[in-house]
Write a structure and sequence with these properties.
alpha/beta
């Protein structure tokens, strides 16, 4: 059987890890990376021998049409990027992480996907994504109760990207600190641009939707080296549910993981890219996708092995 052909959109932290995950997948191949024209030809080591292109059209002309676009750009650009690839007849996966906007995005991409005969899996990181699946399973096991999802401590890729987009910010890293009970604070290290007003940066960060709902601590650094000292990729989650099964209370469920953030996000995206080739046209999140569709190989082999 021919391998599933993918393109990677973007070569940031997640895009680089996606290339590595595709390399290890037994049933996939990467036809190329689509980047902004000014970036093509740079960071060749990160490309790991994969060719980069300035557009989907130039990639198709050189390599043929891929089946799936793995979108690795900022969440705020995902709706536009995903629609463009869907309209071109490709399946898409992305790690859109603005939680309260996910339902609207699912409906928007769904209309485009059905019209184009394509499949999209959105919000397919680890949260939202695989953690969403765990929350659904926990509720199936204990329907009445409360689930707390506690992130970190660790570097949030989405919040870091949002911080870097703030006017006056040259570079930034956002650390998520769990307070407990599903609440978090944000510690943002900022390298300001020369001459930037620090108080204005603080004000813009505090009003940004990524940061406005949580306690925020902004700390300024003087160099990229100082920033790199706090910008490792570690992250994690502790999810806990206390509830009842039927009429029996005090059921206690927990899920705990400590991870490299971009590596895990990338692996979920690659597994989701596989799943899109097994779905009908439409838009999905991971709670809609049968887990077996994420795995390579024969379904019944996994049934025999895992059930």
């Amino acid at each position: 059987m021919a391998p599933i052909s993918v393109l990677v959109h973007g070569l940031g932290n997640i895009g680089r890890c996606v290339i590595q995950s595709v390399e290890t997948a037994p049933d996939m191949e990467c036809l190329g990376v689509v980047r902004t024209p000014s970036s093509v030809g740079s960071k060749t080591l990160d490309l790991r021998g994969v060719q980069d292109f300035d557009s989907l059209e130039s990639l198709i002309k050189a390599k043929g049409k891929p089946q799936v676009a793995i979108i690795c750009g900022p969440s705020r650009l995902v709706p536009e990027d995903a629609e463009r690839y869907l309209k071109a007849g490709l399946n898409t996966v992305d790690s859109f992480d603005i939680h309260d906007q996910v339902p609207a995005l699912v409906e928007k991409l769904g209309r485009t996907a059905v019209e184009a005969g394509s499949a999209a899996i959105t919000a397919a990181g680890w949260d939202p994504g695989t953690d969403s699946v765990m929350r659904a399973i926990f509720e199936a096991m204990a329907p009445a109760g409360t689930t707390f999802t506690n992130f970190g401590r660790g570097r949030s890729m989405g919040h870091s990207v949002a911080a870097r987009a703030i006017k006056g910010v040259a570079e930034a890293t956002s650390i998520t600190i769990p307070i407990g009970g599903g609440r978090h604070s944000r510690l943002v290290y900022v390298l300001p641009e020369a001459g930037a007003a620090k108080e204005e940066i603080k004000s813009l960060l505090a009003s940004d939707d990524y940061f406005s709902h949580d306690p925020l601590d902004v700390r300024f650094v003087d160099s990229r080296a100082e920033l790199e000292a706090v910008a490792d990729n570690s992250h994690g989650v502790l999810m806990e549910r206390i509830g009842s099964s039927g009429q029996t209370s005090n059921q206690r469920l927990s899920f705990d993981m400590r991870i490299d953030n971009p590596a895990l996000t990338a692996q979920v995206l690659v597994s989701s890219a596989r799943a899109t080739t097994r779905l009908n046209p439409g838009s999905y999140t991971l709670i809609d996708v049968p887990p077996v569709a994420l795995l390579p190989g024969d379904r019944m082999r996994h049934v025999a092995r895992l059930v």
